[in-house]
Specification:
The protein is an alpha+beta fold. The chain is built from 3 helices and 6 strands. It has helices at 7-19, 41-69, 112-117, and strands at 38-40, 89-102, 105-109, 123-130, 136-138, 144-146. It has a 4-stranded antiparallel beta sheet with strand order 1-3-2-4, covered by helices on one side. A two-stranded antiparallel ribbon has the order 5-6. β5 and β6 (144-146) form a beta hairpin. The longest helix is centred in the middle third of the chain and has 29 residues, at 41-69.
Length: 147
């Protein structure tokens, strides 16, 4: 059975979210336009998946706050389910320039200037993220296995 998160865990995750999700591409603010935006494709796609997970966590925390602050105080509403969003599936299309292949990873460039200048040489990857519940099993030996 998956471990249920308690409200303190969720509140910590929200504080982490408020610090910001830092994706290497598409930064807003003071960006050195001469600096190349080269990064690992593996790290880039991992950050996208983590950003979606953190967004879902933020929505769940807000839904829990609504339940606690509004629904629990009303005799009728306390029996109703709280509405939230289902982020069970997400599709992302990435366009980038391949800089180098290093071992089992690909270094990509996501600089807007480089992408604009090399429109005919861009690589495109479509990713589809589908959520699955994490399941924890207890073996006869007492050891726990997470799948």
């Amino acid at each position: 059975m998956p471990r249920k998160r308690d409200i303190k865990d969720v509140e910590k995750e929200i504080k982490d979210l408020k610090k910001g999700i830092h994706l290497p591409a598409g930064k807003i603010g003071d960006v050195d336009k001469n600096k190349e935006s080269v990064m690992s494709l593996k790290a880039f796609t991992t950050n996208i998946a983590l950003a979606a997970l953190k967004a879902k966590t933020a929505v769940d925390v807000e839904a829990a706050k609504v339940k606690k602050e509004i629904y629990e105080k009303d005799a009728i509403m306390k029996n109703l389910p709280v509405s939230t969003f289902d982020l069970s599936e997400m599709e992302v299309e990435l366009k980038f320039v391949v800089e180098e292949v290093k071992g089992d990873d690909v270094l990509i460039n996501t600089s807007l200037e480089k992408i604009a200048s090399l429109q005919n040489s861009l690589s495109t990857v479509k990713l589809k993220f589908t959520s699955k519940p994490i399941v924890e099993y207890a073996l006869a030996s007492g050891e726990k296995v997470i799948k």
